[in-house]
Write a structure and sequence with these properties.
five-stranded mixed sheet; ROK
């Protein structure tokens, strides 16, 4: 019998969020729990918080966990907005040990890839055709690219160089807050970033997500690019939903 419930944890640069997920509806069951990301966000410190989140929900099934990092076969290859000691860490083994469960019960994914997978499954059907790029605007910028609904894992388009700068250093949602930018000012930076990206990969659709997607009406209408832009239907819960689905289905990259 196919599982109808799962559990996902989304590790971000500012917060670690977890929740039970209804895998038929692609929706959270009840409230999510959010705990500030520890500083420094070392593997051990983050694992402690993840264990606290799992314990809070008394969940004993498979756990899907996202990292703001390139993840290949459960090992973190990069570390964006988390401690650099993550690089080379076997995250699968770390979390399995900390949670006291088999490695096969832990699925590790890049955070944007997990969010994108959730949007492919539960979001706008238009996203499943052609080249779709999901971008999460938060502490940094995460990217996930799909061809007819199939993921090309571990793209890092948030680190594209735009006008001599790492894109996320200028256009992440955190930059808007840190520099006190208005939505209009910030949208101009996002527009510039998207225009460079669309000229490189020529997508058919951009999906924009992350925490700032909750205020999409304040900035998405200001964008003026060739490619159609839609807001992530699951907003900032997409990573949790995608992680939960990946864990149940044993998907890992």
């Amino acid at each position: 019998m196919t599982a109808t419930r799962g559990f996902g944890i989304d590790i971000g640069g500012s917060g670690i969020k977890g929740a039970l997920v209804d895998l038929e509806k692609g929706a959270l069951i009840g409230d999510r729990l959010r705990i500030d990301t520890p500083r420094p966000a070392t593997p051990e410190a983050v694992a402690d918080v993840v264990a606290e989140v799992v314990r809070h929900f008394a969940w004993d099934g498979p756990v899907g966990i996202t990292l703001p990092a390139v993840v290949k076969k459960g090992v973190a290859q990069t570390a964006a907005n988390i401690d650099p000691t993550w690089i080379g860490t076997d995250a699968d083994a770390l979390f399995a040990k900390r949670l006291g469960r088999p490695v096969d019960d832990v699925a590790m994914l890049n955070d944007a890839d997990a969010a994108g997978m959730a949007e492919m499954r539960f979001g706008d059907p238009l996203a499943r055709h052609g080249v779709t790029t999901l971008l999460t605007f938060g502490t940094g910028i995460g990217s996930a690219v799909f061809q007819d609904g199939k993921l090309v894992p571990n793209t890092e388009f948030g680190h594209l160089e735009v006008d001599g700068h790492d894109a996320e250093k200028k256009a992440a949602a955190s930059v808007k807050d840190n520099e006190g930018l208005s939505y209009h000012q910030w949208a101009k930076r996002v527009n510039r970033y998207l225009s460079v990206l669309e000229n490189l990969i020529w997508p058919d659709l951009f999906i924009v997500g992350g925490g700032v997607s909750k205020k999409s009406e304040k900035w998405v209408p200001l964008l003026d690019i060739r490619t159609k832009v839609v807001v992530a239907s699951l907003q900032n819960n997409a990573g949790i939903v995608g992680a939960a689905a990946a864990a149940v289905e044993g998907i890992e990259h």
